[in-house]
Amino acid sequence: MIDGYFSLYQTRSVNERKFSNFGKTEIGMQKTGFIPAIPDFTLTPRIDQVGAEERASRFTKRSIKKESKVNGLKLVLNMIDLTTLEGKDTEGKVKQLCYKAMHLHDALPGLPTVAAVCVYPTMVRTAKKALLDSGIKVASVATAFPSGQASKEVKIKDTKYAVDNGADEVDMVISRGKFHAGEYNYVYDEIAEIKEACGEARLKVILETSDLITFDKIRRASDIAMYAGADFIKTATGKVQPPSSMPVALIMLEAIRDFYYKTGRMVGMKPAGGISKAKAALHYLVMVKEVLGEAWLNNHWFRFGASSLANDVLMQIMKEKTGVYQCASYFSVD
Amino acid sequence: MPATKKKNVKKSNTIKLKFDTSWNYAPAPESKSAATIKKQYDLFINGEWVKPLSHKYFDTSDPANEEKLSEVAEANAADVDRAVKAARNAYEKVWKKMPAKERAKYIFRIARMVQERARELAIIESMDGGKPIRESRDFDIPTAANHFFYYAGWADKLDYAFPNRNTNPLGVAGQIIPWNFPLLMAAWKIAPALATGNTVVLKPAETTPLTALKLAEIIQESGLPEGVVNIVSGGGATGAAIVNHPDINKIAFTGSTEVGKLIQKSIAGTNKKITLELGGKAANIIFEDAPIDQAVEGVINGVYFNQGHVCCAGSRLYIQESVAPELIRKLRDRIETLIVGDPLDKNTDIGAINSKQQLDTIRRYLKIGKEEGYEMYESSCPLPAKGYWCRPTIFTDVAQSARIAQEEIFGPVLAILTFRTDDEVIQKANNTPYGLSAGVWTDKGSKIFNLTKRMRAGVIWANTFNKFDPSSPFGGYKESGFGREGGLHGLLPYVNLSH
Amino acid sequence: MEKEIKKSSLSVSENGIEKKISPKRLEVLKTYKIYIGGQFPRTESGRYYVAVNAAGKQLANVCLSSRKDFRDAVVSARNAFAGWSERAAFNRGQILYRMAEMLEGRKIQFTDELMQQDVPKAKAEKEVNLAIDRLIYYAGWCDKYQQVFSAVNPVATSHFNFSVPEPTGVVSIIAPQEDGLLGLISVVAPVIAGGNTCIVLASGSKPLCAVTFAEVINSSDVPGGVVNILTGKVSELSSWFVSHMDVNATIYCEKDSTVQKMMQDKAALNVKRVIFYDKINWNTDEGQSPYLIMDTQEIKTTWHPIEHIAGSGGGY
């Protein structure tokens, strides 16, 4: 096993803080107190794009039928972070979204709820209240979402605001500009400090892969985020095109797997943006199953960030149940 | 310091991912009803189905359930003679006189008709040979059609293929193909032969004759002049009758090195041109700076594609020592996710071993490997009760001198060896009588070219493996044979050049 | 074996005119040895045969090479292969050109030897000229046949895919019996131009030029072992030439169908490439062609993925 290269980070206080947080805060996390060696991020594994895409397309060849399809679709519903992230969001809109989160399709009993609703920090309080004791988590984007172009102080304040208002989860964006400039220390420290600001809340780190462009950089950013303390790594904000893709998610899942083997610590995964069809969601499930296996096939470790996926999944479940193809008019949009 | 804090954590190598998940794939079998298999097939000679003069038929069965699929005529020497006469007649009277552009259009037409009947052909290929439907559907059948399409276009452009020379067809080509890619091999053989103006007598493999016979149906439907392509099923004796027929001008054989040598001996003293595409024991070399996860996938595709029944399979894996433990762990995880079973199930990754005989061969090597003392690891997937099956298997810490590292097993069995330096691995990789293919994985461009240049093999895959294309020449060095199939270079074995 | 020399019958020719040796000075005779690994050993067997002309005149005692000489030559050729095949093609061209230069400078000697072996003067001169020009021809091809016979293949996937010729390895050659110099050069030049190394059995009846040509090779920067020249009998050596497991290809230039059949049969031992040049007239342009280079080439196809970030997509 290669433990990578030790860096000066070992002696930095920020790391001590960060890693001491690991052991005591997380559900399901291995409570070890172990500080993994920080690798030299310029030496992260190389990715061959063509090979990665071939592998990703292989998952899409899996044929998911019958009970396996229904079970998979229900699992997908339960993994959704039902999302509204618009400049025109209002309390009214968020309340409706929360109701939908709890009542996906009452005509069809026995459905799970979604995992969380995902909103801007200003909407956290509203969402928290609306969801009551449904068990559905409230996730808040933070850190000057979606560009991340703000000072670290502002980002920390943004995060604390969300957490103070009751956010169970924080979806931060990394500083892509700093990343491209090669300032990996900055990116790392920022994530670590946001993690600290999160307190008990779980931190999802959005890489915004479409800004990173190459698979090598996506892998590198994944590693930085995980070593800096991310509870989840997440593909995209949904605000930049092209959206999340299977190969990109594969690179990140493989990074999670390698990190797990190296440190014993599980990190969650959240693809977001562009996943609007049930079939695509099932392909992602196939990928999780075959890359990470059983332990990640639940909403504690895997999420879909999506706004319109749920209804397509519902239509497919209904089709399996009734045997007839469905129409969108029969499923509530919000 | 990390070293002192490690005591609280489980050692990394005891951490294990669990792939036997609660969410599983339901069976997704392709429907057999989309394919028609006749109860009996005769010989396809001179554009017609004719009863064999041998009066004999043999069974062809589904290796996944050992059930008979059909019975197929067994051509004897007299049948072969009839086919050769038909081919000669078609050559002299029709095919060599036909304008090249017309010849091209027939081949294009065959390509299209293969595409139209792709689903049926895929199903039959998987039933007769045991390969997963995913492969026959996504690889074998489309690539076969593409081969016809590619070579069709060459027919009237041969002047551009050989500068300063005229091309002349050879006459009648006798072609003998193996059981691992039945239809694809038929296409590899027939397409360039027809494009260059030759006529054909082709013998499909004894265990997998059906798709070649379906191709005969297509050829009949296409209106190709009678006798241009003749398909005679049979076993070794039929093949020998083709090889030894005095009126054949060209022998093209794909199969084992052992039989290839026999054929090379048999044609001694004749003027027959010969192409041999024989066995291999490809080295697949992974350096520490490789794109590891893609390399893992390359290894998987390299040795488990088509149950390992691939002459260019990457069956000798050389891993640089510094990354060997990580890579082996990843390979073990990966083979846990390979699904072995019903070839017609769309989720099957590894189908049935082609025949009882081949399964026995593979098992013999597994026994040898264990006896030689190498650590064997096979996946834990369940196997069906009936049929011929073999789990994906890895041997680690294998020595260069081990039989499992030297001999072609032709099954889903990988021998893993380690190395330290570039020179060492180049020497070890070339340390084999074979020379069909090789693979190299590294992120460093100049190293790739060093390796690809120094590997003594006909096809080198760098940062990929087991890729094929009609435009890409394929064939071996050394005991892996001679002559190329595919691409511009695949035309040469079927022409004489003159000023 | 001591060489018996009757002084009175000795004559040398100069520009085709025979003249008696002056009794004042004893002519120094050349010992015709074989050429292995850049050295001029005698045959390990100690055997010889007498080369005679049509009139029965003894020309020289020539090594009757054995299978062990051949074996040693294969070792030299194999050792030389890596270095020669990996040389820059341009450099191989320079060396072949150098061979031509050396040959040009020794035209008279070669013409003389051919004439001793019954070739009329005009024909001998023509043969030497053609031999020089043939070396020049192949010197020029050394860095060009790859371009003519390579291909970039437009595969459908996102890969760069190209096919190039590479030398097949060690080639054993039984040279044409008729044209002692031109025949030898015509078969050796394309083989070494293409980066192979070879062992060539010279014409049994006209061996003198072959041995002298070894001297040209030796003084032309051709690394030892690239060309190994044996003299001897086809009937003794041909089966060894084609059965050796470390020889990749065999070239045979005569029409003897028994030998041809034997060769094809034995070649199967290691799937050797067997090439017959039994219809080529080496005295014409038909005797030279890049296709002859290609006869001892393999085609290697290499694949590599092409990243298609930022929308390039596909191959070539």
In total, how many domains does the architecture of chain A comprise? 1
Oligomer: heterotrimer
Main pleated sheet of chain C: 5 strands, parallel
CATH class wording of chain A: Alpha Beta
Task: Tell me, rounded to a whole number, the average pLDDT of chain C.
Answer: 92
Give the CATH class of the largest domain in chain C. Answer: Alpha Beta
Query: Number of DSSP helices of chain C?
Result: 10
Order of strands side by side in the largest beta sheet of chain A? 7-6-5-4-3-2-1-8
- CATH homologous superfamily heading of the largest domain in chain C: Aldehyde Dehydrogenase, Chain A, domain 1
Count of separate structural domains of chain C: 2
Count the strands of chain A?
A: 8
CATH topology name of chain A: TIM Barrel
DSSP helix fraction of chain C: 25-40%
Description of the molecule:
The complex is a heterotrimer of chains A (about 325), B (about 500) and C (about 325). With about 325 residues, chain A is α/β, with parallel strands linked by helices. Chain A is about 45% helix and about 10% strand. In chain A, strand 1 (about 80-85), helix 4 and strand 2 (about 115-120) form a beta-alpha-beta unit. In chain A, helix 1 crosses helix 8, helix 4 runs parallel beside helix 5 (about 125-130) and helix 10 packs parallel to helix 11 (about 245-265). The termini of chain A are far apart. With about 500 residues, chain B is of the alpha/beta class. Chain B is about 35% helix and about 15% strand. Chain B is built from 15 helices and 20 strands. Chain B has a seven-stranded mixed sheet, with helices on both faces. A six-stranded mixed sheet of chain B has the order 9-8-7-10-11-19, sandwiched between helices. With about 325 residues, chain C is of the alpha/beta class. Helices cover about 40% and strands about 20% of the residues of chain C. Chain C contains ten helices and twelve strands. A five-stranded parallel sheet of chain C has the order 9-8-7-10-11, with helices on both faces. A three-stranded antiparallel sheet of chain C has the order 5-6-12. Chains A and B meet through helix 2, helix 3, helix 11 and helix 12 of A and helix 10 and helix 11 of B. Strand 18 of chain B pairs parallel with strand 12 of chain C.
